[in-house]
User: Fold these one by one.
Assistant:
Number 1:
Amino acid sequence: MRQAIERRFPRPSVMGVVNVTPDSFSDGGVNFDPDDAVASARRMLADGAAIVDVGGESTRPGAEGVSAEEELRRVVPVLEQLAGMPVSIDTSKAEVARRALQLGAELVNDVTALRGDPALAEVVAESGAYLCLMHMQGEPRTMQADPRYDDVVSEVAAFLEERLRAAVAAGIAEERICLDPGIGFGKTVEHNFELVRRLDELTALGRPVVIGFSRKSSLGKLLGDPQATTGSVAASVGAAVAAYERGATILRVHDVREHVEALAAAQAVLA
Ligand code: 9MG
């Protein structure tokens, strides 16, 4: 039986991003080759990541989905070489999650919050894995076209609470679940910053909160480039530290060493 997720990932914990995809804006497909992905993951863990999140399907704005076969073809060689290391699988597909959990993944990071594949909840429940439920308005292909909310924070909170109840009703222990507002997933720049500014309304749901602001375009737009598709490392670190100060538990990032060092300093100051 796994310990509660807040014990396994004390605040702050860093999750390193390993995109085994050819088309990621944020890391330019640098880990599409399995050996490169494994080397990146090992470096992230050596640099202090608590876990690495391995994904074979791009969820960047405009991305098309890939088949389960293609996703497995991308991630399985990486997961095989990472056996025994702390790994999360970034997938919405039951078939991919099942194989990843067999290969040792301990967390399923589902950007659809169990809405993408009706079979995924049972796979997670039976395995006893940790689960991240993320908010997204729309789907990656179209989500940034015209995102609208009356009140982004209360709508995201209501969504996450409903998905948490659905996951628990499907047999997944609440103590193994964390929540994520989905920075950049059907949100404007202002929506994204508002979600972190009012993070206390999400931590009030009683589950650890994950924030993934790393290298996202809102950071580049904030700094004056309206056409930005990525954000800088420095802006990413600033957003992560602010999110931690507002109550985030897990920071999902590309530049692990920089975030680990900044969060250690922030933790010492805030202690
Ligand atoms: C896969 N992926 C891309 N961005 C993400 C984010 O912000 N959170 C989570 N949980 N997954 C993400």
Note: Strands lie at 13-19, 51-55, 87-90, 107-110, 130-134, 177-180, 210-211, 250-253.
Number 2:
Amino acid sequence: MAKRRTAKRRAPLEVWKFGGASLADATAVRHAVSLVRAHRGPLVVVVSALAGVTDALLEGARRAVAGRPEAASAVAASFRRRHRELALALVPRGPARRALLASADAQAREYEEIAHAMAALADLSPRASDTLVARGERAASAVVASALQAAGRRAARVDAAGFVATDGRHGSAAPDLKATRTHARRALRPLLARGITPVVPGFIGSAPDGTVTTLGRGGSDLTATLVARALGAARVVLWKDVAGILTADPRAVPDARLLPQLDQREAAEVAYFGAKVLHPRALIPLDATRIVLHVRSFAHPERPGTEVSTRSTLASYPVKALATVRGQALVTVAGKGLMGVPGMAARTFAAIHAEGLSVSTIFQSSSESSIGFTLPAVEAARASAALEAAFRDELAAGLVDGVNARAGVAVIAVVGRGMAGTPGVAARVFSALAAGRVNVIAIAQGSSELNISFVVEEGQARDAARRVHAAFQLSKIGGGRPPGRSTDVVLLGFGRVARALAAMAGRTGDGRIRIVAALDRSGYVFDPRGLSRGRLLRLAAGKDRGALLAGLGGRSASAHAALHEIAAHAVSRPVLVDLTAEETGDLLLDAVAQGFDLVLANKKPLAGSAAAYQRLLSAAASASRRVRYEATVGAGLPVIDTFRKLVESGDRVLRVEGCVSGTLGYVLSALEAGATFSGAVREAVTRGYAEPDPRDDLSGADALRKGLILARLLGYSGMAPRAKSLVPKPLAGLPLARFLERLPEHDDAWRRRVATEAARGRVLRYVVVATPRGVRAGLKAVPRGSPIGALSGTRNLLSFTTRRYRTEPLVVAGPGAGPEVTAAGILNDIQSLASE
Ligand code: ADP
Ligand code: ASP
Ligand code: MG
């Protein structure tokens, strides 16, 4: 007995925070619950709002105030639905579930009412906004507390507004450490003493006037460290959907590596400079404590993540991490009058402070005749006005030339404790930038010597970060490649090919490739841990019934918005697979900029204008992204693969020629077997070989696109000619039904043509020829015994004439259409990206 009590007293307290992505849906909450249950010893759980909820609540309120109150109603409805769904999934029937459902209803209703009231006032004060948004965390904590209880862990929800004391700056309140400590101890210790796990909503607190405040976006990290400090915890764990703190934002620097350990002050700098992984002020409460903070992967709890502590490791790396703050403006006050005049800097920053603004970094021009600082671009106008007022006299007297604000810049901070003792760090940073022709607009060296920061045009920020990352060899840091280096696949378009792909990706048994999201025109489904095969198959069944993803448990969003949302979740080695038949060029450019590699089955983005083709490939090259498109030509046949292997082995491909249309192949070989033209076309449609309107195939346009893709591969940069169409001219413009009705009028002509060729031992084939100088596609009579003449049905064949295979071309042949073989081609591309 006595022994047990000491053991109990000794078990150190931990504070765990679950981020929004860790609470995305019922599966995620179950996983969080199982982690908590497996933990022995006292624990406080801090939770964020469910993934996407904070954004939605803010957006709904903003739109309501902008005159669209129905937007707030829609947000309220989806808020209610998501929380109800969790309650039904996680809590058994009974009073606890009923209470949870009732509170989700009440919170949603209240949100709607307040938003509508504010819409009437046409004003969204930060204070009202905090009241609205606080319910995200409050509702999530209620769900988690009940789910824990349902799973047999003693837990109780404790509202953070009852003990996190802050100042009155709504929207970005600063905590009062001392008051919070007293209140938190009173609120939480009695529960802990009874073996109960308090579940606390993160992000919120209360102002001196008793109104609810929020701690700024990402603020639940700060709640966790505040609670840890208040209770003297041994450890804080932040469960996130990233592997830990990486050397740089993985979306900007694909080579970013997991940092096994970081010094508290280094982590504070990284957070302060905008690495979204930690709230900028999250480390302040840990200052001068020995509390260790761990950032760990929710998806891979067995991995160690990043330790933030007061140890010093990685001594051979003077620089350990980079952080980028985007959306900034550089404001400068310039003038000869500034030189040597004491107090100018003080007056500058006093004016900014009086305006309630805070600067992120202070810069100095080399001439010393200006003072500059950065702050969020949206605040630049206010800052300029404040400075112009403050220096009115100097401006009039010509001592100050002017106040200038330059928006569209980013600040990059280069962080590492070892910088102080290592000469030449700044030189290395700036020579790496100069080598890449990155234009540095301003430079600052932090007084702590823990960081060097510089300002660049926003468009050059990624490039700058990559260059500095490479200059300090941060990709060699010990923590290894981030998130287990899985390759996360996002499917654009969700139809038959996607279904085949889902089945195959499941079968490879290769855990490295996961399908994490699917998009269609209605919206998307996304799970950063991968969508299970069962879930994908259920989605496919739903689509067969005519439903869209947004209605199948997904969210509605435009494809652009969906990609941004997905990319924001640190998807590991993301690959976007385009399975549509649309003009997706702009979306693909966006995807590349968001860090996606591309795999295309869609021909259109590669077979449009030469300029559009070049734009896509060069955007990919300059973002170091890779593009694969084996499935665009010959589905699963290794056509492009063969081309590459020939080139790699030093051969030169002179010409690629063959039959690449399954539909046309089917129709033409049926004619030889005695079918009529109209009959063969109808049959191709019934069997699903042709497009719904067979003229899309008969026109040769699709075959020509494939030819153009091949010609471009061979170096052709000209325009696409027109394909020679097999659609009889008079029938081209008719409605589909009329077209099919009148097609038999042309059967005789076709029969004669086939017979004439047959008498000469030849057959008709639709042949595409690609060379470095051009492409053509049209009907051709070839000897029956030739490889092309011997093709039958929907089979494809391509022959490569190269320097080495000049007299006898190299031939690739096989089934060239159908969902399974197309999926195989795509999977091959994905695997090749994954293994590089
Ligand atoms: P939480 O679920 O706790 O709210 P966040 O989404 O706030 O987690 O934090 C993870 C995000 O931070 C990821 O989207 C990741 O891309 C981004 N990020 C930016 N810089 C870094 C970095 N240096 N290390 C890890 N993640 C980073
Ligand atoms: N839910 C809040 C946000 O999205 C706080 C947090 O997640 O930490 O900013
Ligand atoms: Mg966060």
Note: The longest strand covers residues 321-334.
